[in-house]
């Protein structure tokens, strides 16, 4: 058996299967002495869509059997390899179709355990003793100076006892001492509620209501909650469970005496490591070198003030210079910093490591203090510095000044971020700092704009300025790349919107995120970022940008079931477009109002707007939007019982979208045609329309609408006497609704139960 066949025999997941395809593609290129086949070349040779090919190679989708066979033959697999790969494909597909154990509402949010954790036996014992009493909610407040290891202790202990909390573990970094504002507990509660299985539409809007819902859900459950980096007791208090069985660990630089006095928290004060614990930590990090030079090790420990963070940074410096004696290394930490204040020593260690960096790494380190977080890629760091960043980031990681948290992504401790921010303002001029911020935001804006248009080709694009000199936006090839980029940069982009100083960056960055947030169920986040965008557009007096933002806010309200609020936002957008004499914008606003009135149960009002939208799009000559308008008119006629007019408009829409290549609009039109055929009793034709629509939406990764269409397909299969087809479609729909935490999941479960 060759090595590829052996790897195929071990493959159990879609990711592993995709890795085998990529490996096969590389082998073929090496054997033929040419470059690897691109996705576009494979799509051309097979006649498949580019997005489908990308999904097969990234593991997003497992190729159907016939396509998989064609693909591996195209990539030059031998007969034996074809057999092994086909078996692997069938095994992976079967595993993916097998119903998974339900994990909904059981969060597992703890960060990875701390590597090489040492000491703290007294603190660990104190925490163990606290949870021995299960008659009340157990709250522990772990306090201590910065860099003393509070987070490491809390996370390590949480992993030790996680098995005792069968209903899950919640974790939140409250950023109490970060350069930006601490996290609002109102936002943390929303995240916790979603993690506990609450649908986005059901998350209460008010802070008190969210806290009450949180306590209600946790009542009778055993959940461990870790609240990291709290600033005040008030930031923590809304996040405390109300009934016995749960435990909460809070870390803070403050003693949180209010939490102790009022809420019964048990204080666990962390001091610096004992000399013996510090020595054990150095041994773990440097091995025999410590015992070979015990005096030098003791000096290094003393000058690092026995702070774990400082010791790890010093050890990283030592590990990078294995030939240097610890005596010489310890001497580099000057005795000028050998004082009683731990923070003075910590600053000394930071300075010691910083001054040893190459100029390029030192400059990048201080500029990273401007990044909004939570992490940064090589590409974004290169734009920030206007210089290649891969080597400087590797140097910073080797010095433990940043950590590579996943492949190609780097983050650093709040203390180091603050130190970097300080050095940036000391060593860079105001114009240099402004230029760096501009490059960073331009990097995210221009990459985001390309990603947004690849993700949604029919979007009406915005006009942005040229990127600042030195900015190197990422080159995304296709929709698969765009989705991957948005997924990876999701939280960075949210932070960039919040922290952008220029109003233009604020609303334009929010615009790039709109469709990604909408289609992936992040509707409360959408409302938050678009509220910032709307305020920015009003300050700019940019009415076109305001209308776009009102539409985005309205879409989120529609998804959350707030149809009247959505209608009002769409109406604001329409008024602004009328002021601008923007016929295309007016038409889109009318189309959106059509959808809102349909949801409100007022189809005749919706028809008026749909007909206005159709006339405006015809006048503007926008074929894609004209098709959408025909589809909207047709769907409402079907609701009103006029199937003839409904069919005429929807068939016109389908011809337009197919002639001009608009797959998302084609899927929407096929869904409408399925509805019309089902009303007329032509169930086979309806099933065909729904299947085609679902396949298109799957290729576009439009999860929400795919689930809606699958639900329609299942109902039609049931009506046609095909319970197996109905069951299969409902199972797929259920998986998506659960993934998006949508309330429709309950209805689908009921339908599946009724089939049995």
UniProtKB/TrEMBL annotation:
Gene3D superfamilies in the cross-refs: P-loop containing nucleotide triphosphate hydrolases, Tetratricopeptide repeat domain
Residues covered by region (Disordered): 91-114
Entry-linked InterPro entries: Cro/C1-type_HTH (IPR001387), NB-ARC (IPR002182), P-loop_NTPase (IPR027417), TPR-like_helical_dom_sf (IPR011990), TPR_rpt (IPR019734)
Domain HTH cro/C1-type: 20-82
Segments of skewed composition (Basic and acidic residues): 91-101
Any coiled-coil regions, as ranges: none
Record GO terms (molecular function): ADP binding
Pfam families reported in the protein's UniProt record: HTH_31, NB-ARC, TPR_12
Name of the protein this chain belongs to: Tetratricopeptide (TPR) repeat protein
Lineage summary: Bacteria, Bacillati, Actinomycetota, Actinomycetes, Micromonosporales
């Amino acid at each position: 058996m060759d090595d590829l066949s052996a790897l195929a025999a071990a493959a159990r997941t879609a990711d592993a299967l995709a890795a085998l395809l990529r490996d096969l593609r590389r082998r073929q290129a090496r054997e033929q002495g040419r470059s690897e086949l691109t996705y576009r070349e494979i799509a051309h040779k097979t006649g498949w869509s580019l997005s489908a090919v990308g999904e097969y190679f990234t593991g997003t989708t497992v190729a159907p059997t016939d396509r998989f066979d064609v693909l591996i033959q195209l990539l030059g697999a031998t007969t034996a390899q074809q057999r092994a790969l086909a078996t692997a494909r069938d095994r992976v597909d079967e595993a993916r179709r097998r119903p998974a154990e339900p994990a909904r509402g059981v969060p597992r949010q703890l960060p990875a355990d701390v590597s090489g954790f040492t000491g703290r036996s007294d603190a660990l014992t104190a925490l163990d003793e606290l949870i021995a009493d299960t008659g009340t909610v157990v709250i522990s407040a772990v306090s201590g100076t910065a860099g003393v290891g509070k987070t490491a202790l809390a996370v390590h202990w949480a992993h030790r006892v996680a098995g005792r909390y069968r209903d899950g573990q919640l974790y939140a970094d409250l950023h109490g001492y970060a350069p930006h504002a601490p996290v609002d507990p109102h936002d943390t509660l929303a995240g916790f509620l979603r993690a506990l299985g609450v649908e986005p539409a059901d998350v209460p809007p008010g802070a008190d209501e969210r806290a009450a819902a949180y306590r209600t859900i946790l009542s009778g459950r055993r959940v461990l909650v870790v609240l990291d980096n709290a600033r005040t007791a008030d930031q923590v208090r809304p996040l405390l469970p109300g009934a016995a069985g749960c435990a909460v660990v809070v870390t803070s630089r403050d003693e949180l005496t209010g939490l102790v006095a009022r809420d019964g928290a048990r204080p666990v004060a962390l001091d610096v490591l004992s000399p013996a614990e510090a020595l054990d930590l150095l041994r773990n990090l440097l091995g025999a070198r410590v015992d070979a030079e015990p005096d030098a090790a003791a000096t290094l420990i003393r000058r690092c003030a026995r702070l774990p963070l400082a010791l790890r940074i010093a050890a990283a410096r030592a590990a990078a210079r294995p030939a240097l004696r610890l005596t010489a290394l310890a001497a580099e930490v000057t005795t000028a910093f050998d004082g009683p204040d731990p923070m003075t020593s910590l600053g000394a260690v930071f300075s010691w490591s910083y001054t040893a960096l190459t100029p390029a790494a030192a400059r990048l380190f201080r500029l990273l203090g401007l990044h909004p977080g939570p992490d940064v890629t090589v590409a974004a760091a290169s734009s920030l510095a206007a210089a290649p960043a891969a080597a400087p980031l590797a140097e910073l990681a080797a010095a433990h000044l940043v950590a590579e948290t996943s492949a190609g992504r780097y983050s650093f401790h709040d203390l180091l971020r603050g130190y970097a921010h300080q050095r940036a303002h000391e060593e860079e001029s105001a114009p240099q700092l402004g230029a760096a911020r501009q490059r960073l935001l331009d990097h995210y804006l221009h990459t985001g704009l390309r990603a947004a248009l690849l993700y949604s080709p029919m979007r009406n694009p915005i006009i942005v300025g040229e990127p600042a000199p030195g900015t190197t936006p990422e080159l995304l090839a296709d929709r698969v790349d765009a989705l991957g980029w948005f997924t990876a940069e999701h939280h960075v982009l949210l932070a960039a919107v919040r922290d952008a100083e220029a109003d233009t960056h604020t609303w334009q960055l929010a615009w790039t995120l709109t469709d990604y947030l909408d289609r992936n169920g992040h509707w409360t986040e959408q409302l938050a970022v678009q509220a910032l965008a709307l305020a920015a557009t009003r300050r700019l007096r940019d009415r076109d940008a305001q209308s776009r933002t009102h539409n985005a806010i309205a879409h989120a309200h529609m998804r959350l079931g707030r149809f009247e609020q959505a209608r009002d936002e769409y109406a604001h957008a329409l008024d602004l477009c009328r002021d601008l004499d923007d016929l295309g914008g007016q038409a889109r606003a009318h189309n959106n109002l059509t959808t809102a009135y349909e949801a409100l149960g007022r189809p005749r009002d919706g028809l008026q707007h749909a007909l206005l939208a159709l006339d405006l799009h015809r006048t503007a000559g926008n074929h894609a939007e004209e098709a959408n308008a025909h589809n909207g008119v047709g769907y409402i006629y079907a609701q009103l019982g006029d199937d003839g007019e409904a069919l005429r408009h929807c068939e016109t829409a389908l011809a337009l979208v197919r002639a001009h290549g608009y797959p998302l609009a084609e899927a929407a039109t096929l869904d409408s045609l399925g509805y019309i055929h089902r009303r007329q009793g032509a169930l086979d034709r309806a099933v065909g329309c729904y299947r085609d629509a679902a396949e298109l939406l799957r290729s576009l990764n439009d999860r929400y609408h795919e689930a809606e269409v699958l639900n329609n397909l299942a109902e039609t299969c049931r009506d046609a006497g095909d319970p197996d087809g109905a069951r299969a479609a409902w199972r797929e729909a259920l998986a998506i609704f659960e993934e998006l935490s949508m309330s429709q999941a309950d209805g689908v479960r009921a339908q599946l139960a009724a089939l049995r």
